[in-house]
């Protein structure tokens, strides 16, 4: 199965993705560390490193799926083209595709999480709170069947809901 996370930066999707990866178990492939690695390798930030990171994660996910294993992709996925990429991968690999969107319904909590976030990604800037409004439009217009988790709920409740949903059949 291909499990694809989506949601705004700081909403809590990586936290859910990592716990799902532990419980399933399944590798979690995150786009941000790949993009940071491209920069460390000397690829200039003026290049389309965000797109390259999505493509690199897709290639690794394809290899994992070809082994018959489930994989969790952790990325914002706010652009329709990104979501189409995962639909195409699931179709080519002939595996079910499960979308999990993580939101944070409390704007003050979301802002606090984003502004206080410290990831081990040297040189990778965290987005400014004000930049999220523009990015949210892509997710707002999204109409794929998906599980939406609100990260104001505790992690155990959200991961339990995700695991329950993942046990049900999916339509691609």
Automatic annotation (TrEMBL):
Q: Where are the transmembrane segments?
A: none
UniProt entry keywords in alphabetical sequence: Kinase, Transferase
**Signal peptide span:** none
Named from the GO MF annotations, one term is: kinase activity
What name has this protein been given in UniProt?
A: Kinase
Q: Which organism is it from?
A: Nocardiopsis terrae
């Amino acid at each position: 199965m291909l499990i694809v996370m989506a949601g705004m930066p700081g909403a809590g999707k990586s936290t859910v993705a990592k716990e799902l990866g532990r419980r399933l178990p399944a590798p979690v492939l995150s786009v941000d560390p790949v993009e940071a690695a491209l920069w460390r390798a000397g690829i200039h930030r003026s290049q389309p490193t965000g797109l390259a990171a999505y493509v690199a994660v897709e290639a690794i996910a394809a290899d994992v799926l070809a082994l018959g294993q489930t994989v969790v992709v952790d990325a914002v996925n706010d652009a329709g083209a990104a979501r189409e990429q995962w639909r195409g991968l699931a179709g080519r690999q002939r595996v079910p595709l499960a979308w999990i969107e993580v939101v944070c319904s409390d704007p003050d909590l979301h802002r606090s999480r984003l502004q206080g976030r410290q990831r081990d990604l040297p040189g990778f800037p965290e987005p400014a709170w004000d930049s999220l409004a523009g990015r949210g439009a892509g997710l707002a217009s999204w109409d794929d069947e998906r599980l939406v988790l609100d990260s104001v709920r505790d992690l155990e409740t959200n991961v339990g809901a995700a695991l329950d949903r993942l046990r049900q059949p999916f339509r691609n």
